[in-house]
Amino acid sequence: MHKFLALGLLPYLLGLLNSTRLTFIGNDESDTAIALTQIVRGLQQSSLAILALPSLALSDGVCQKERNVYLDDFLQRLHRSNYKSVVFSQTELFFQHIEENLQGANECISLILDEPNQLLNSLHDRHLGHRLSLFIFYWGARWPPSSRVIRFREPLRVVVVTRPRKKAFRIYYNQARPCSDSQLQLVNWYDGDNLGLQRIPLLPTALSVYANFKGRTFRVPVFHSPPWFWVTYCNNSFEEDEEFNSLDSIEKRKVRVTGGRDHRLLMLLSKHMNFRFKYIEAPGRTQGSMRSEDGKDSNDSFTGGIGLLQSGQADFFLGDVGLSWERRKAIEFSFFTLADSGAFATHAPRRLNEALAIMRPFKQDIWPHLILTIIFSGPIFYGIIALPYIWRRRWANSDVEHLGELYIHMTYLKEITPRLLKLKPRTVLSAHQMPHQLFQKCIWFTLRLFLKQSCNELHNGYRAKFLTIVYWIAATYVLADVYSAQLTSQFARPAREPPINTLQRLQAAMIHDGYRLYVEKESSSLEMLENGTELFRQLYALMRQQVINDPQGFFIDSVEAGIKLIAEGGEDKAVLGGRETLFFNVQQYGSNNFQLSQKLYTRYSAVAVQIGCPFLGSLNNVLMQLFESGILDKMTAAEYAKQYQEVEATRIYKGSVQAKNSEAYSRTESYDSTVISPLNLRMLQGAFIALGVGSLAAGVILLLEIVFIKLDQARLWMLCSRLQWIRYDRKV
Fold it and tell me: Which pTM does this prediction carry?
């Protein structure tokens, strides 16, 4: 009977011992101080934060007095080891100290002389659990706390120090195993009678612990985003409900991943690091963005797959997850898996009207110079001819005097009246006679020369001949030959409109041509537009003005949907996204039907994990090895090659089907004709239009000349009739 009572009270006594801390009397305080000093030194850090609060379980004054003595002794020994320490008696100041260290990415080690239950909730609520923060709880009892009573969940790093006997201390660590069960495991111990700590450093490194996950299962959000993930949704219910973000509701939505670059990457990581993964549907089937409540953005809450990471319902997230400052506040990123750039896609430059082909060789910047050359050529030619006549003028004695209409020769008068008439000779400026209407002739001569019309030599001077040769060479070998060569190239390769490949051209097209810009909802490209400066902010304002009734009408479910929108005839649409994603989706519909812009900005994609993720270092090591060995690039190229093979197979299949169908064959033939087309008279219709316009203008001028001649004849006839009447009246 007593034996059974003893067995029944044994669990109770163990629990009581487990929840009770030992008190120190006599030399126990110095032994404890020495042990804790050696334990802290085993961490190989130079600073320590100490939180010393009155314990609720040990509230008697004796223990409080002994603890003060212990704390003083511990600080004295710690400072002898050249350690920096700061002691807090208020939890708020202690939490602020940890937050400041985390913001500066500094490792912070804390020694807490209080019960864990009173601080764990605050540590989790304030997101102070991080791989850079280590919390040492001096438990003081023989056994560590039971996992049913206290659970130290990841990413919180906790060390619990127990005292099984005098001068002996055991160190338990919650991240000694990679299985994420938050159970404490013995990793080291201290024996004051022997050599002190068993091993240094005190704790196993995260790289060694998380190098092998030993079959641990991770939850990975996923949504359809080729070429990164090809997803088939087994449950098509897409409505939002109150329990949509709960883990149970998400796991019920089954998804099936059929391929993708990041799917292959995840399989390779799982094989190398020995873990399993389970795909869950990302809420909203998006990466995630900041929630908007009452028009105000909440920086502490995200939607989509990032929201699952932030709430701890997922372990990591792949699929072209772009890095941004806003996202770094909620999650962390690994070493980048893709170095990409931002870009946008539009339709391919359309073929211009062939009727204007004869005018296109002279671009807009050439026409002013050509017109000015033709305008000033005539006056320059006139100046070259007229200048010699002006230079050869000289003063000579004038022999002729004018008296009204009479001309008097002074030499003759001197001969018939010698010594009677004394006149002084008058000097005048004499010159050779300039050709009649020289300026008009020079203008028409240059015009006929540039227009390749027949014309005679205007002047026989060597200067005029030299300039005529220069004009003829310019008109024949420069203008005519260059024009002919460019016109031939225009006929061989039909001209197309200027491509929209810069942000400035896209902005001009949205303002003047009514283009619409689309972006994937809750993506990093959308964040770039919302938080960007200059042109990005202006483009975002233009996007919101596209659809007045629907301010969010510029959202698309995926980049693939946007490319499909352009392929179905959206000639006035553009899609913004990652260049690699755009390039991959463009191949599905034919790259010759789309135009990719220049690189707008550099963007990086990486594996997203929870803040303070303990295995981020191990994951980075594997990703860096894959990057340095070129495996990531090979995986991307393999995904592209696979897509090309599928596209080619689809085209061959469609070609065989269209060969049997005359209508489909005619469509294929018309499509091929837009790529390479032979020279035909349609390309020369511009010349016939110009000839028709010239003939019409000549006919109009001829009619006007006839009309004006008849009017002049009528006026002359009326004038003659009036003169005859006047003569008749005078005679009468």
Answer: 0.69
